[in-house]
Amino acid sequence: MKSAYELALERLEQRGVERPREDIPAEVQEKIAEVRRQAEAKLAELEILHRDRSGKSDLLKRQEDEQNYVWERRRIEDERDRKIEKLREA
Question: What percent of the chain is helix, strand and coil (3-state, nearest 5)?
Fold first, then answer.
């Protein structure tokens, strides 16, 4: 019996979509997992600091803090994605 993943891959192939690469070595997978863990830790820290600051300021300051929070969150996520892509290409 095939798994749902295998069935989905077969359906994609029938539509002309290539199978995703599955030949990532174990050491690269571990490095990718480490990059993800580090990013998750940074995001958690950022969120804690943001929540702490958000209740202690006026409306304009909170809006500015919210914009900075969103910008910093995107920066961390983009950095994580770039590192992962670099590891996959190597």
Answer: 80, 0, 20
